[in-house]
Write a structure and sequence with these properties.
It is built from 10 helices and 10 strands. It is an alpha/beta fold. It has a single domain (about 5-279), classed as Alpha/Beta hydrolase fold, catalytic domain (Rossmann fold). The strands form 2 sheets. An 8-stranded mixed sheet has the order 1-2-4-3-5-6-9-10, sandwiched between helices. The protein has a two-stranded antiparallel ribbon with strand order 7-8. The mean pLDDT is about 95.
C-alpha cells in the first residue's frame, strides 16, 4: 500500500508525502508525532481506503522532507497550505498525532474554509511545559545522546518504548539513519526537536482554541498509564478545560491505550475516527 511516495518543492523546501486512494475522494491529511514520519500511520491507513484520499506528509525536518528551518508551527501551516494547493485539494479532514495536533488546529483556525473536521490523537489540548515531569532540556539532551549500534537495537528500543504495541519495522527505521561510523541516530535535527518542543510549550492555547470553528474529536489515551499521579490529574483537567473552551469538540478515551493510539489500539482509533468523519 505504501508505494505512492511523492515530493513537492516550493521555495527550495521539499515535502515528502504519501498520496493514496482515489483522487476525487474526500481527502484526509495525516500528521505524525514528533521525531516520527508519515510511516506512523501504516497500521491504520488501509482502513480508510478506498473511501478517502489519504495525504500523509513528513513535517518539516522529519523523514524525507527538507531539514531546514524555521521549525515553527506557523511555518508548518504554510508548508501544508502549499502542499494542498499543489495537489488542488480545497477541503480536508485532518488526523493529527501528539505535537502535530497544535499545527493541525492552527491550520484549521487559519483556513477554516478548508477543514471539515479535526481528529486530535492525544495531543494539542495543553501546553507541554505544564505537563508534570516533562523537562524540555532533559528530553533534548537525551535525544542528542541517543545512538543505536544496529537496526536490531533500534527495533528493540521501539518495542520497549511501546509495550504491547505492534511496531512494523518500517515505522522505526524511518526515524533513523546511519552516521559516519555506521551507527544509527535519529533523522530529526536536534535544533528542530528543541524548537518544536518550545513551540508546544508556549503556544497561546486559549486564543487558538477560541478560533476553531470545525467539529473536533479528541481521542485520548488512558491517563492511568502515566507514571505520576500529578500527570494523571493534569491530563484529566486539561481535557475538561479543552472541552469547555472548544464547544464543538468532544472527547473519547480509549481504555488501556498508550500515547500513540494508532500503535497501541489501531482498531479502536480507526473505528472512532471513521464514525466521526461519517457523521
Amino acid at each position: 500500500m505504501m508505494q505512492s511516495v511523492k515530493r513537492f518543492t516550493y521555495n527550495g523546501f521539499t515535502t515528502e508525502y504519501f498520496d493514496l486512494g482515489p483522487a476525487d475522494a474526500p481527502a484526509i491529511l495525516f500528521l505524525h508525532s514528533i521525531r516520527s514520519t508519515k510511516e506512523l500511520f501504516r497500521l491504520i491507513m488501509p482502513a480508510f481506503l478506498p473511501q478517502y484520499r489519504l495525504i500523509a506528509a513528513d513535517i518539516r525536518g522529519h523523514g524525507g522532507s527538507s531539514r531546514q528551518g524555521p521549525y515553527t508551527f506557523a511555518q508548518v501551516v504554510e508548508d501544508l497550505a502549499h502542499l494542498l494547493d499543489h495537489e488542488t485539494i480545497r477541503e480536508i479532514a485532518i488526523v493529527a498525532a501528539s505535537f502535530a495536533c497544535v499545527p493541525a488546529q492552527l491550520f484549521a483556525a487559519t483556513y477554516p474554509q478548508r477543514v471539515r473536521k479535526l481528529v486530535l490523537l492525544d495531543g494539542g489540548f495543553y501546553n507541554l511545559g505544564d505537563l508534570p515531569g516533562f523537562r524540555i532540556d532533559a528530553q533534548v539532551r537525551k535525544y542528542q545522546q541517543t545512538v543505536f549500534s544496529t537496526l536490531d537495537d533500534v527495533h528493540r528500543a521501539f518495542a520497549r518504548h511501546h509495550p504491547g504495541s505492534t511496531v512494523p519495522p518500517a515505522i522505526a527505521e524511518s526515524e533513523v539513519e546511519p552516521d559516519a561510523d555506521g551507527r544509527y541516530r535519529f533523522k530529526l535535527p536536534v535544533e528542530a526537536l528543541a524548537s518544536y518542543f518550545q513551540e508546544y510549550e508556549r503556544f497561546d492555547r486559549v486564543a487558538l482554541f477560541s478560533r476553531l470553528a470545525c467539529p473536533v474529536l479528541l481521542l485520548l489515551s488512558d491517563e492511568e498509564n502515566m507514571p505520576l499521579e500529578e500527570g494523571k490529574t493534569f491530563l484529566r483537567h486539561a481535557a475538561a478545560d479543552y472541552l469547555s473552551r472548544t464547544r464543538q469538540a468532544r472527547a473519547v478515551k480509549i481504555p488501556g491505550s498508550q500515547h500513540l493510539l494508532m500503535l497501541s489500539h489501531p482498531q479502536e482509533t480507526v473505528s472512532h475516527t471513521l464514525r466521526f468523519l461519517s457523521e
